[in-house]
TrEMBL record:
GO cellular component, one term: extracellular region
InterPro entries documented for this protein: CBM5/12, CBM_sf_5/12, GH, GH18_Chitinase, Glyco_hydro18_cat, TAT_signal
Catalytic activity: Random endo-hydrolysis of N-acetyl-beta-D-glucosaminide (1->4)-beta-linkages in chitin and chitodextrins
Source organism of the structure: Streptomyces dangxiongensis
GO molecular function: carbohydrate binding; chitin binding; endochitinase activity
Signal peptide boundaries: 1-33
Keyword Hydrolase: yes
EC number: 3.2.1.14
Protein name from the UniProt record: chitinase
UniProt-listed Pfam families: CBM_5_12, Glyco_hydro_18
Any single biological process term in GO: polysaccharide catabolic process
Amino acid sequence: MRLVLPFRAALAAAATTAAAMGLALTGTGTAQAATPLPNHVFAPYFEAWTGESPAALSAQSGAKHLTMAFLQTASKGSCTPYWNGDTSMPVAASTFGADIKTIQGNGGDVIPSFGGYTADTTGTEIADSCTDVQQIAAAYEKVITTYDISRLDMDIEVDSLDNTAAIDRRNKAIKLVQDWAAANGRKVEISYTLPTTTHGLADNGEALLRNAVSNGARVDVVNLMTFDYYDNQAHDMAKDTQTAAQGLYDLLAQLYPGKTPAELWNMVGVTEMPGVDDFGKAETFTLANARTVYDWAVAKGINTLSFWALQRDNGSCAGGAAADNCSGIEQNTWDFTHIFAPFTGGGTTTPSNDFSVTLSPASGSVTAGQSATATVKTAVTKGAAQSVKLSVSGAPAGVTASLSPTSVTAGGSSTLTLATTSASPSGTYTVTVTGAGAAGSHSTTYSLTITGGSGNQCTATPWAKDAVYTGGQQVSYKSHTWKAKWWTTGEEPGTTGQWGVWQDLGAC
C-alpha cells in the first residue's frame, strides 16, 4: 500500500533559514494568484528523477496536468527541499521551470508532491527532517511562488505516518501557508496522498487527518493509493477502489459534518497503478478496471484521478513484473492516460475519434543478414477515421527499420521491415511502432531475435555475482545494460523487480 521509489544515497546539505531562502510568511511572495485547478482533474504522477521532460511527456500523452514526484531534503535534519533530494535540482526556475511554464501555457499545470516512500523511510520528508514549523512553511511557500502553482501534495506513508511530531509540524506549517495565501489573494489547495486498505484509511491515516482538523489546516483532497494492498487476497482492483473510497467518504463525513455529500465526494482522490503493482499479478489493474473506475469517478464527482506513474503507461514489458517504465500488461502506449484524460474539467466528454495500432506477427527470429517483416494494422476504435503517422524506434545497432507507407488512414496497414547484417549483434530486442493522430498516439512492440550475429553492442562490463557495485555503475547481462541504483552485490539483474536495485537501460 505505498508508492515505492528507488533509494537515493543521502547527499550533504546544510539547513537554511527562512531568511536565507529569501522568504517570509507575511506576504513577501508574489501576490499574483495561480490559475486554480479544475474541480475534477486527472493528474498522473511524473517520475522526476528520470531526466525526461515533463512538458514533452505531457504533450505526447495528452495528460495536461501532472503530479511531480518528489520533493525531499538531501539529508536528515535539513530544512531545504530538493527535487529527489538531489542538491543539483533545487527549487528554482532552472529546475523544471521552463517545462512547467510550457505545461501551464498549454492549459495544464503541475502539482509538486512532497515526500514519497524513499523520503518517508529515510527521514528526509521535510516535516520529518526539519523541526522548525516556520522553515517548513517557508519551503512550501517557495515552491508555490517559484512555479506559480495552486496545489501542493503531501505523500505520507510508512514511517512518516507514525511520526506524530512531524505530522503536527506539517499541519501547522500548512495552516501558516494557507493564512499567507489568503492574505496574498492566492488559492492554494493541499492534498494528502495516503495508503489505504480496501475499505478505507488505516488508523494512522485517520489520525493524520484528525490532527489537520485540530490544527485548522484545510485538507482539500485526500488521495488514496488504491494498490499495493499486500493482503494475499483476491482482488477486483476497480471494486476495491470503490470500497476504499466509500470508507474514506464515511470518515470525511465524520470529520466535516457541515459538508454536503457532493462536497465530500469532491474531497476524494484515487491513484491507481496501471498493470501489475508491487505485490504482483494478483493485484493487476487492467484497462477494463480503468474504464470502470473512470465511469464511477464521473458518477461520484470525485476531485482527482491519478496513477503511478506516467512513464509506466506502456506495454513494453508485457507479462513481466512491476517496473519503473512499463505496466507489465499488454497495452498500447498511453492507453490508461487516454481513458482517464477526459476526466479533467468534469469527465463529461470522451474523444470523438480514436484508433488502435497492432502488429502481426508481434515477434520473429532471424539469422544475422536476413530480414524480418510484420504488418502494422490500424483500426478505428471511436468515431471517424483519421490520418495516422507511423514511426519506429528501438532498433539495435546494425539493424535498419523501415515502414511502408509511413502514413495511413485509420483502418489501413503498413509493412514493417527489420533488415539485419552479418555484423548485427545476437540477442532479443524490442522495437516500438508508434502511430500518431489528432486523437493522440498509440504504440505497439515487436520482439526481434537475432541469431548468429558477429556484432557485440554491449559495452558495459559483464555482471559478476560476487562483485560489489555502487549507485550509478553499469553492467551488461543477458543482452541488456543495467544501472545500479545503490550499493549491491549478488543480486541478479532482471530479478529484483520494479523497485529493486537494477534499472534496465535497454537491450544492447
